[in-house]
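pasting for the record
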Amino acid sequence: MKKRFIMVICPVLAGITLLFYSFKSAEIISKNDDTIHIEGGSISGIKSTDGDVTAFKGIPFAAPPVGDLRWKAPQTVIPWQGVKQCDAFGPSPMQGKPVPFMVYTPEFLIPETPISEDCLYLNVWTKAHRGEKRPVFLWIYGGGFSSGGTGVPIYDGEAMAKKGVIFVSANYRVGIFGFLAHPDLTKESPNHASGNYGLMDQVAALKWIKKNIAAFGGDPDNVTIDGQSAGSMSVNALVASPVVHGLFNRAIAESGSFMIANPTLPSNNLEGAEKEGLKLAALAHAQSIAALRKIPAEDLMKIPGRFSPIVDGYVLPKPVSQIFAEGKQNNVPIITGWNADESFVMGFKNKDDYVAEIRKQYGADADNFLKFFPGNTDAEATRSQVKISRDQIFAASGYKWISLQSAQGKAPIYAYNFNRKLPATPDFVKYGAFHTGEVAYVMDDLKFLNRPWEPADQPLATLMSAYWVNFITTGNPNGQGLPDWPKYDNAMQQAMIFDATSGKQTLPDKDELKFMVDRVEGGK
C-alpha cells in the first residue's frame, strides 16, 4: 500500500475554487486483474482499501483542447499504447489562483498545480462485475464557470459506488477557455456557433458514457446527471438542450438554474458575446483567432472578462426559460432545491442603513419590498440580506423551475430545501447551511470534511444519499423505510426539508420567492 495525495476543488461563485486535502490508501490493480478496454485503449485503476470498489481516475475522454483545438468542440480521444494506469486525477482546467473568503478558508483551497489546458479527463468508481447494468451517475462540479475540477474529496465516488451506482465525474473547460465567443470562431464552427465549449465538454462526457460505461458494469440507458452551483446551472442547460436528447434519463440540480436572470453572470446571446470576444481580442492585441490560440494560457487569463454559457443557437437554440415555457426541454424526472443560507454578502448593513438602501433602490416600491425582506431590527436586516442574495442567485430561479415543471406535468419534479446548519467553530457558525454545504451529505462523504460533526449529521447523510441513489436508479427518490417525499405540484407545494429532523412540508418562503421571480421578470 502507498499513500496518494488527492487534489480537491469545491464549487463557489466568483471564480473561487475550493479545496480540501486528504490522503487515501489505494493499490494499483494489476493489468492482468481488472484491465478495462475502452475507446482509446486499455486502462487499469485503483482498488479501495477494502477491495470493494475500483476507481479509474484521469481517463481521457477527448483530445487535449490545446493549440489549434483551443476553442473548438471536444475532439475524439487520442489512442494510447499499452495499459494506461488511471490512478490519479487529471489536471484541473485553467483557472485563477484561489483566494480564501467567507467560510471557504485555506483548508478548502486548491494548490496552484496541477492545472492545465489539457484537462479533459474523467473518473469512474464502480463496484459492478462485468456484464452487470448498474445505474450511472454523472457529477458536474460548480465554480461560477470560472473554476472547479473533479478531484474534490467530497466528490469522491466510493461511497455512492458502494450503494450500487456507477459514479462518474468529468472535467470541463471554464472561464475564457470554456466560454469565449467570437465571430471568427462562429464562422469556423460546423455548428455556426461559439462560446459554449464547457457545455460541449459535458456533452462529450455523456457521449463517452454512452459508448464506454458498459465496460465498467454500467447501463448506458440509465444515466442521471447531477450538478451543484454552476454545475446545477449546467444541468438546467442540458435538460433544455436538444443536442443531448437520449443521453440521460433524469437530472438533479443543486442550487442554480438559468430560469431567471442571474446577477452574478453576464447575460448574452451569441451576438453580444461575440462583441465581448472582439473586445478581448483587441485587449490581447490579437488580429486573428490563430494569434489568440498562440497566446500562452497564463497570459490569456490576465485579460479581464466574465464568461458563462450563452444562447449560441446550437447547444442552446433559445433562452433556457423560453425552452421550458414552450415545453421543448428533455422531459426527464428532476430533483432540484437550494440551501437556507447560501448567500455571498461580504458585509452586512445595520437596520437603518439597510432600510435606507432599499428605499433608495426601490423608491415607491420599497414598502412592498420590505414586506418580504424586512429590517426592523439589526438581526432581521441581516437575515433579509442573506435571503435577498440567496433568492436572487439561487432560490427564485429554482422556484421558477419547479413551478413551471409542475404546471406542464410531463415529468415529475421533486423539490428540497437543505436547512442543516453545518457544525462549525465559532468563526464559521454564522454561515449556517451555506452554499455547497449539502454536497458531502449527498455523497455520504462527511469523513472528508474537517467539521465537529454531531449525532444528527451521519444519519442525515445516510438519508440524503439513499434518496439520491433511489432517484438515480428509478427516477423516484422514495423507497422502503424513507419518509415520503411527494412530487412537487403548484397546489400542495410540498418540499422535502433536510435538517437535523427531515420531512416534507410546505415550501418555505414561497411567497417571497414568487415576489422575487415577478420582480426579475418584470425588469425591476
